[in-house]
Write a structure and sequence with these properties.
The protein is of the alpha+beta class. Helices cover 34% and strands 19% of the residues. The chain is built from 3 helices and 4 strands; from the N terminus they run E-E-H-H-E-E-H. The protein has helices spanning 20-27, 31-39, 60-69, and strands at residues 10-12, 15-18, 50-52, 55-59. It has a 4-stranded antiparallel beta sheet with strand order 1-2-4-3. A hairpin with a 2-residue loop joins strand 3 and strand 4 (55-59). The termini are far apart.
Length: 79
């Protein structure tokens, strides 16, 4: 087996489409976590997905927006 080739994210209509691996790396979570978030049946927990044929992709703008909406800033209590 040869070394894994680094593929560049696809650019569609001025938005990049990320693979599950790329989105997981961007969010700092494992691929399994991102897949688990995607499979939640009642309420999806992760960023929105785009299907390209049978493949799952994440629009960069969607991941960034999801991250912005799901980031909690925790401040240190005053002593």
């Amino acid at each position: 087996m040869g070394a894994k080739s680094k593929r560049q994210p696809r650019k569609i209509e001025s938005d990049l489409l990320l693979t599950t691996e790329e989105a997981a790396n961007m969010l700092g979570v494992s691929i399994k976590t991102l897949e688990r978030w995607r499979r939640k049946t009642i309420k999806r927990q992760g960023p929105p997905i785009t299907r390209v044929g049978l493949q799952i992709r994440y629009a960069l703008s969607g991941v960034q927006e999801w991250l912005k909406d799901n980031t909690e800033v925790i401040s240190k209590p005053n002593d």
